[in-house]
User: Fold this.
Amino acid sequence: MAYIFKYSIRSGTPASSLDGQVPEAIKEERNQTLLSLLEKNSRRRNQALIGTAQEVLVEGPDKKGLRYMGRTRGIARCISNATAPDRRTGAGPDRSHHAKRPLRHAAGR
Assistant:
């Protein structure tokens, strides 16, 4: 993961008056190229985690309340195969999720 920002001129700085400023269109093109590379690398790394056993910090039920969402030590979002408690009845979850179990990566939905 990386954070990428396009350079922007700051008035009053020595660089703001230099010749040869990079045009906005080129800045945007470079920004998109870097973002695309980062996304491809992230997807490749995350795909390698699918089906592996990982230690996960559980954050809570997924949006549908059917399974648990969490994050691995590498901050990858994942979905546990364990079931979440029934919101209507309050019935507890299947406690077998406490053991390390294969996870499905959230981006792999």
Notes: Residues 94-100 have pLDDT under 50 and may be disordered. The two ends are 20 Å apart (CA to CA). The first strand starts at residue 56 and ends at 61.
